[in-house]
């Protein structure tokens, strides 16, 4: 009965997830459809711009030819020359002369006008020096309008069929040909509308480098029409399936997260968090100097859980202190015999700076080292550089722990918020340089330059350096070239292993 009730409760959520999946799929289809339309208008805008440049070049050449011709007025010889030029240029319908007062007196097709025709002020003066009259009243046929290009002395009329090939385009497409500033509309095809539906409308603008011409192409492409019903049904079905799958995944993750929290709480309380150890080596000699304790958790149902995941989850659950105490006690218990056997070795334990400032953790370190007969100097506490705690409080905590005889390292140095200035202000025993910089050793990268700078500052403040993440002999050779007494930690020597597998020395081959 409880399972049936749960199924009834989850059914609306499943329906909602499927509906959201359908909506998302249809929205995605529309966006993709609109973007495919954008590619169409990019091609269209480019084509119209090239044609507009061809027309403008043809018109400009015709005006220049008229200016160069020996026209003195409207004689038969002058009119014959105008006709010749009119027929020579493809996009020219007519050509003629202006009076000094700006009136038209004659043209190639209409000869001498009965009375001078005043065209008014030009619409635009282009950067090429041409005067343009856009859709000005015709001097030949009353009620008509024409486009005139010219100079104060001569003019040509653009052929009305110059853009005929673009006049019967697809209904969803529209094009404007304007001046470069967009103030003057020279040609338009289709219906241009400002704004509009952002889901279906796309717009592309292209401008000429030679002439005062820009082309704006627009498409209003909507997939929600009967012509695309099959596509919409398929997209909706896939969306519903994906929505249901996503819902199932989220439910699974939610329950897994609850399970993870419960299992981790039980594992910490039962002291089931185990430790592996990674050796820290004197690179030049291969001598073992210490080892870092690394927490591990393997659950019988969930399998191996990544440390970042379960340590972060412990913080969320408020179990960090309990986990830290468990790790400290286990590490000192497991390493006591090895540390007493070899007094020059040290054990490093990762703690957040908050834990370092926690007197209960400090007292636990003191009591556990005393109980196991371990010298405090054989314990190194690694803290992360990127703490947001005020540096004066941090230094006070570090000084107190060092006064008690423990060492303090800064872990993952170089990735925190404070940089090199941080190192000069904190009195620590060693810094552990993050693997990002270690693995750049011997390269020409910016990280390699930062690595050298970190080492120089560490040397100036008399702080030891451990290079983390050493994986290749080439990296180690490059490090030894500028830091002969380097300490190293990484897979070149050993992965994290049980304490019993840590050898007293590691002879990594650095030749070749």
TrEMBL record:
SUPFAM superfamilies: EAL domain-like (SSF141868)
Classification via SMART domains: EAL
Topology with respect to the bilayer: Multi-pass membrane protein
Keyword Cell membrane carried by entry: yes
Principal cellular location given in the protein's record: membrane
Compartments where located: Cell membrane
TM stretches of this protein: 231-254
Keyword Transmembrane helix in record: yes
Catalytic activity: 3',3'-c-di-GMP + H2O = 5'-phosphoguanylyl(3'->5')guanosine + H(+)
Residue ranges occupied by any EAL domain in the UniProt entry: 257-510
Taxonomic superkingdom: Bacteria
Keywords: c-di-GMP, Cell membrane, Hydrolase, Membrane, Transmembrane, Transmembrane helix
Pfam family, one: EAL
E.C. no: 3.1.4.52
PANTHER family hit by this protein: CYCLIC DI-GMP PHOSPHODIESTERASE PDED-RELATED, CYCLIC DI-GMP PHOSPHODIESTERASE PDEF
This protein's name: cyclic-guanylate-specific phosphodiesterase
């Amino acid at each position: 009965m409880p399972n049936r009730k749960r199924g009834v409760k989850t059914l609306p959520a499943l329906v909602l997830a499927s509906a959201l999946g359908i909506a998302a799929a249809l929205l995605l289809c529309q966006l993709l459809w609109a973007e495919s339309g954008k590619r169409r208008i990019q091609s269209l805008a480019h084509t119209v711009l090239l044609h507009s440049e061809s027309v403008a070049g043809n018109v400009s050449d015709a005006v220049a030819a008229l200016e160069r011709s020996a026209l003195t007025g409207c004689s038969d010889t002058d009119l014959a020359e105008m006709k010749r030029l009119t027929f020579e240029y493809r996009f020219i319908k007519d050509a003629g002369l202006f009076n000094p007062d700006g009136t038209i007196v004659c043209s190639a097709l209409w000869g001498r006008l009965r009375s001078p025709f005043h065209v008014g002020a030009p619409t635009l003066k282009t950067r090429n020096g041409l005067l343009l009259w856009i859709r000005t009243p015709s001097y030949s046929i009353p009620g008509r309008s024409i486009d005139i290009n010219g100079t104060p002395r001569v003019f040509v009329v653009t052929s009305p069929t110059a853009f005929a090939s673009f006049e019967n385009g697809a209904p969803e497409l529209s094009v404007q040909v304007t001046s470069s500033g967009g103030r003057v509309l020279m040609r338009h095809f289709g219906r241009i509308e400002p704004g509009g539906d952002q889901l279906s409308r796309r717009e592309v603008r292209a401008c000429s480098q030679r002439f005062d011409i820009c082309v704006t192409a627009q498409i209003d492409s909507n997939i929600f029409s009967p012509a695309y019903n099959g596509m919409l049904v398929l997209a909706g079905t896939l969306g519903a399936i994906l929505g249901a799958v996503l819902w199932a995944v989220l439910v699974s993750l939610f329950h897994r997260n609850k399970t993870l929290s419960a299992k981790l709480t039980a594992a910490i309380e039962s002291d089931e968090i185990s430790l592996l150890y990674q050796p820290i080596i004197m690179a030049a000699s291969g001598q073992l100097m210490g080892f870092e304790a690394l927490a591990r958790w393997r659950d019988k149902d969930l399998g191996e859980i990544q440390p970042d995941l379960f340590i972060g989850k412990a913080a969320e659950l408020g179990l960090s202190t309990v986990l830290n105490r468990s790790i400290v006690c286990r590490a000192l218990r497991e390493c006591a015999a090895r540390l007493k056997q070899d007094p020059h070795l040290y054990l490093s334990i990762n703690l957040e700076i908050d834990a370092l400032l926690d007197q209960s953790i400090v007292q636990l370190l003191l009591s556990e080292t005393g109980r196991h007969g371990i010298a405090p100097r054989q314990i190194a506490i690694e803290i992360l550089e990127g703490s947001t705690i005020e540096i004066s409080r941090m230094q006070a905590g570090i000084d107190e722990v060092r006064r008690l005889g423990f060492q303090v390292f800064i872990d993952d140095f170089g990735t925190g918020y404070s940089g090199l200035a941080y190192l000069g202000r904190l009195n620590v025993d060693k810094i552990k340089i993050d693997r990002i910089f270690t693995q750049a050793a011997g390269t020409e990268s910016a990280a390699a330059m930062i690595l050298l700078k970190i080492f120089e500052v560490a040397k100036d403040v008399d702080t030891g350096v451990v290079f983390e993440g050493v994986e290749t002999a080439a990296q180690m050779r490059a490090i030894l070239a500028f830091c002969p007494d380097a300490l190293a930690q990484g897979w070149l020597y050993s992965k994290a292993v049980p304490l019993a597998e840590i050898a007293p020395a590691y002879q990594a081959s650095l030749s070749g």
